[in-house]
């Protein structure tokens, strides 16, 4: 069985990571090795015996690689989650500020509209009270009585004019009957309104 190529720790190396013979070293990127820090830390935690077993046992080597890959994936997921949480938090802060500004605008609009609506409400209420006052039963009865009295006076005036010869009997009869019918109708309505009080 050929020797597996992997990194291992040699005795007397003070925990530094070395690479197996014949395996090219990866090139540094921006002055650092392209190996995640958590992978390096995981390798450094292995004993010399564990690293040696990986060199001669393919199953142990595969298990180590699988463990490191899983660790790398978990780390990547954690980083993505952290970044996503930061983005969400930033977005929430921006939205909170926007909602606060909108709330201020709404408050201003409500205050101005409330003043206008309040004035209109009192105006309409006053008009309603005036109309209701004019249509109230006591007021209605009083108006009917005044109207009946006026017609009664007109009919009496027609009687005097007829007796003095100012109008003909035919004219007097027609007008006097109309006036008396109007008088009785208004008087009956006034009496009915009085019974409703």
TrEMBL record:
GO terms for cellular component: ESCRT I complex. It comes from the Eukaryota. Keywords: Endosome, Protein transport, Transport. It is found in: Endosome. Residues 118-197 form the VPS37 C-terminal domain. PROSITE patterns: VPS37_C (PS51314). The keyword Transport applies. InterPro entries: ESCRT_assembly_dom (IPR037202), Mod_r (IPR009851). One of its GO terms (biological process) is ubiquitin-dependent protein catabolic process via the multivesicular body sorting pathway. Belongs to the VPS37 family. This is VPS37 C-terminal domain-containing protein.
């Amino acid at each position: 069985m050929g020797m597996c190529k992997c990194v291992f720790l040699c005795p007397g190396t003070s925990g530094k990571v070395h690479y197996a013979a014949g395996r090219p070293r990866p090139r540094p990127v921006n002055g650092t090795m392209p190996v995640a820090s958590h992978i390096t830390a995981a390798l450094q935690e292995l004993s010399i015996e564990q690293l040696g077993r990986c060199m001669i046992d393919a199953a142990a080597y595969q298990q180590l690689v699988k463990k490191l890959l899983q660790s790398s994936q978990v780390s990547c997921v954690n980083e993505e989650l952290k970044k996503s949480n930061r983005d969400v938090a930033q977005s929430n802060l921006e939205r909170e500020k926007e909602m606060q500004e909108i709330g201020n605008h709404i408050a201003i609009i409500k205050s101005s509209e409330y003043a206008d609506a309040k004035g209109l409400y009192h105006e309409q209420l006053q008009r309603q009270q005036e109309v209701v006052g004019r249509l109230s039963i006591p007021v209605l009865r009083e108006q009917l009585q005044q109207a009946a009295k006026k017609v009664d006076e007109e009919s009496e005036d027609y009687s005097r004019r007829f007796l003095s010869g100012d109008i003909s009997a035919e004219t007097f009869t027609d007008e006097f009957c109309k006036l008396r019918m109007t008088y009785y109708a208004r008087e009956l309505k006034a009496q009915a309104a009085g019974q409703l009080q």
